Amino acid sequence: MTPVGFDRVTFSDGFWQKIRAQNAAISIKNVYRRFEETGRFAALRCQKQKEPPHIFYDSDVAKWLEGAAYLQREFPDEEVRSIIDEAVNAIVENQLPCGYFNSYFQVYEPDKIFTRRTEHELYCAGHLIEAAVALDVCGVNGRLLAAMRKYADYIYLRFYVRRDAGFTTCGHPEIELALVRLYLHTGEKRYLTLAKFFLDERGVREEEIYPFADRAYDQSHMPVRMQREAAGHAVRALYLYSAMADVGRIAGDEQLIDTCRALYRDVADKKLYVTGGVGSGWFGERFTIPYDLPNADAYAETCAAIALALFCHRLAQTDNRAEYHATLERALYNSILAAESANGKGFFYENPLEADARYAKYANTIPGFPHKPLLQRAEVFGCSCCPPNLVRFFAQLGGFVYGEEGEVLTVNQYVSSQVSACGIRLSVQTDIPFSGNVDIRADGRGTLSLRLPAWRTFTHCEVDGKHVVLQEIDDYAYFEVEGSTHVKLVFGMQPRFVYANERVRADSGRKAVEYGPLVMCAEQADNGDELFSVEIPSLENAVVSCGKDFKILVPALRLRTESSLYGYSAPQKQPFTLTLIPYYRWANRGENDMQIWFL
Amino acid sequence: MTPVGFDRVTFSDGFWQKIRAQNAAISIKNVYRRFEETGRFAALRCQKQKEPPHIFYDSDVAKWLEGAAYLQREFPDEEVRSIIDEAVNAIVENQLPCGYFNSYFQVYEPDKIFTRRTEHELYCAGHLIEAAVALDVCGVNGRLLAAMRKYADYIYLRFYVRRDAGFTTCGHPEIELALVRLYLHTGEKRYLTLAKFFLDERGVREEEIYPFADRAYDQSHMPVRMQREAAGHAVRALYLYSAMADVGRIAGDEQLIDTCRALYRDVADKKLYVTGGVGSGWFGERFTIPYDLPNADAYAETCAAIALALFCHRLAQTDNRAEYHATLERALYNSILAAESANGKGFFYENPLEADARYAKYANTIPGFPHKPLLQRAEVFGCSCCPPNLVRFFAQLGGFVYGEEGEVLTVNQYVSSQVSACGIRLSVQTDIPFSGNVDIRADGRGTLSLRLPAWRTFTHCEVDGKHVVLQEIDDYAYFEVEGSTHVKLVFGMQPRFVYANERVRADSGRKAVEYGPLVMCAEQADNGDELFSVEIPSLENAVVSCGKDFKILVPALRLRTESSLYGYSAPQKQPFTLTLIPYYRWANRGENDMQIWFL
User: Rounded CA gap, A584 and A575, in Å?
Assistant: First the structure.
């Protein structure tokens, strides 16, 4: 399956277009302002400051540039355009004659260039390369691509030809997938060679590792082809696996493809939050052990959910299995969407599935408390990788929607939009995620395949006004389009319980409520506190309210009265109406308790 | 109520005598050996070593000396005796002329004596004073008392008379309760004055605090009389509250007594584990917020449960309420007893209520992991306060059993033993905690009052062979003894569910099993893993097996088959027989999973 590029997909009014428009109007500018204030853009000018920039500031700006590139196509903006050009100029002008660019090392420790594996140089390079490709693809600015090709050539020279750098692979994967993008965009084979080289050299010798971590932290505990279990820092892991999927597909490397399938299975079967979040361990922001998915302590970094989506997107290019799109959809509508505030200005870095506002308040009174729960989104972080990652992700969303599989146009996500591919002009209009109605108009001649979401409770289909029983093959339904065809689909949405495998300690004996692709949650703002002891006996009488703010009202039980700390009789509860809202809308009304898993 | 001193209580064969005998034969010697190996005894000789002793080594040895004193009375042992004498000689010989003794400060930082509030000097002094009193009471060695009186006089001079020390109150309470003991033993009023001074000066000004903590950490966030919520480091807190209860009682200080009652209520109603453990937060070993009682992450330091018992013991001396003894009993049979291995050699510092062996193994692979669960007892720790605290606690257990309340002899705990008090010679024989049979023979003339345990499911009583309906007043039953009386009591024991207040997140929707005073647990060694998802629908068909190893067999349900990570149908479980053992016996068969709270 070849994804239809985001540049070929035109969004129309609907759920995602609102988010994308806000991304262009608010988020990208607000992220810019916070980055400007914190010296991230100034650092590109490579002049010594009192406070040196963080070693990964370049990557923050690069992700911003990448997002800005995508947005310029559809939402051109003079202000953003001039920021892009200035930033690109700064990079190009300050690039060393050899091609190297890093606003920290070349200014503050030029003698240490390419000597320390743990300091993100190739990670920053990777994001700059991705930005360069995006700016060129979108026709916004071609200068960065030339500069970054030069940089990539220099990396090729030092790491592959001469092999005289102080390390072989970077402590934070990213360069690998960036080099594949550069190869795909330029056709220059040596970038693919270098990407494959970085993959194959990883974990084969004892390279420098992080002092606070083990070798699995940066996936260098064994050769990547031998890795069958997702391990270590989740963003590092999933960027690496994404590159493995790319190289496996492009090189027809079955062993690498098979490794990616095994890694995906390990994540999807044992290490995935119901929200699509991954990397449960806050210490090391990492994958831990199977079924270790704590809720209040969930790390589930925003960048990790995005990286999971990128990995799924690549896996589907080799095998277009509905499951990959379903996992991407789970991450997209829940963990990823929840990471941005309703007003587009604030961002979560961590995405817990349960919030205890009292505990957060307590933790904040203790200096040195090792992991303080953040229950409010922030506009910028010291390590602010997530905000620009969200900006660039939402900006390229169109690229995850459609695919060309041989002669077949596949609809992998339902987004109100138009596309032309495989001889079909397609227009999709949908209320998803609030109702399961999908209206599809197809013109032309060809085959259309529609993914049937795993969450549907029933499927109703009319073609040109006539009810049709769908022929489902592996969760896709196929339609022959001849002339003008109108497909009306209803994917049944009812609030329903989802149960975690009982091996998940945190969710054992509990259940969550899903509605279509949405994981629902309860917030203190609607329901008062003590939400973790709320019991939902049944969803039979649940009422879905699609007013201004989507919510579901559910008859439930909660604590009745005060009682002693321990007692010999089961706690008595009283009925009340529980208000559930989509998880992605939580924490937009101040710091408060939140709950997903109920008794 | 005045407790009958441990020296007046003679234990007979039974549950506790076995533990006490092991304490004398094994534990005290083993703790000595580990302390000797780690330089704790050598430090008393006050000669500079390559490695300075920890600042609290003196307190470790002092607690050992205190325990050794109690044990010498009943289990005289030449080897232990000579260790005691040598240690006392070392202290006496190296005491500074002014009376000061501290094996760290006087050797390594003599110019810093009494300048740093956070470095345990008065804490160490307190434990040495307690040891001195115990050695004198037990007639083992009177030299230390003389030396420690001199030291206490010096503290009085510096802190109270001259007030020229570098701080006013010690960062680790202990001196306060030790001074009360010294006052009660010697009758010297200035020690009581000094104890009261230290209490009243705490929290009234901004003294030095620990860099990693807030002012509540060492209970100096407000004047102690204003404190109504248990806060901060749990051992510090409960040693402080114990001294407050002492001074309140002795001085008839109603405000102080009322404060202690409020603090007790806060602990018992909101911050107490079902095992009697307290101080749930591992960061700071402290009380956190109401109902924050995580199981796998429970800190519940052994010393904190002991300190809670000491506090209850003192509270009961002002109001002899059954509840205080019930809480002491809960801590005693569960958290405290579990802290020692079956062979008397190993000790827990932390006492979790749930063990996840796989997670512990994982955490051990990560360097710098902030809180690694310890699922096996150790013989010594870097900070090894708990092992000698257990030794001295079990050694003085007799002191917690009986009380004289006016003319009434009260039985507060049921322990096979003899005592003479209030005109009655009493002999108690019991199988508690394995069955609720208590056989009491009383001779003499007087009133006997028997605590009716909160855990009894029924009470059967025969006096001289005749069934009697008990007259209960506030959970005590009263008997007039005239000549020779034989009381046979049966306290009903059936395995029963105990429920935590639903405000306890960790236990919400779950229940534990109690049997008499014992909290039961399930271990992997008997049951396999995945114990947290075990469901106990009913205890009706539970079988109590009082063989060599006490256990309860319960029909239960567990995971049937593998299933996906998330699914729309409730998990299927299959019946099996769950083996429960007393919590205090856990972790005696290698590192394995353990569970107390079940679905």
Answer: 27
Beta-carbon separation of A288 and B356 below 8 A:
no
Last residue of a domain, one of B337, B371, B400: B400
Q: What are phi and psi of A274, to 5 degrees?
A: -65, -20
Radius of gyration of chain B from its Cα atoms, rounded to whole angstroms: 24
How much is the pLDDT for A473? 94
Nearest residue of A to residue B456 by CA position? Answer: A568
Q: Do A530 and B503 touch (CB under 8 A)?
A: yes
CB contact under 8 A, B270 and A565: yes
Contact A173/A236 with Cβ under 8 angstroms? Answer: yes
- When computed from its CA atoms, the radius of gyration of chain A, rounded to whole angstroms, is 24
Closest chain A C-alpha to B193 CA, distance in angstroms: 33
CATH number at residue A420: 2.60.40.1180
Instruction: Quote the ipTM score.
Output: 0.94
pLDDT tens by residue, A280-301: 999 999 999 999 999 999 999 9
In a shared domain, residues B274 and B257: yes
Name the closest residue on chain A to residue B457, using Cα atoms.
A568
Whether B226 and B317 share a structural domain:
yes
Please give the model's pTM, rounded to 2 decimal places: 0.95
- Across the range A157-163, mean pLDDT stands at 98
Contact B341/B380 with Cβ under 8 angstroms? no
Is residue A240 within 8 A of residue A296, CB to CB? The reply is: no
Residues in B touching A501 (Cβ below 8 Å): 563-567, 571
Name the residue among A172, A133, A171 with its Cα closest to residue A152: A133
In this predicted model, what pLDDT tens digit does every residue of A95-120 receive, in sequence order?
999 999 999 999 999 999 999 999 99
The pLDDT value recorded for residue B372 is 87
Residues of chain B by 3-state class (helix, strand, coil), percent to 5: 40, 20, 40
Domain boundary, last residue among A161, A176, A208: A208
Chain A closest CA to B322's CA: distance in Å? 16
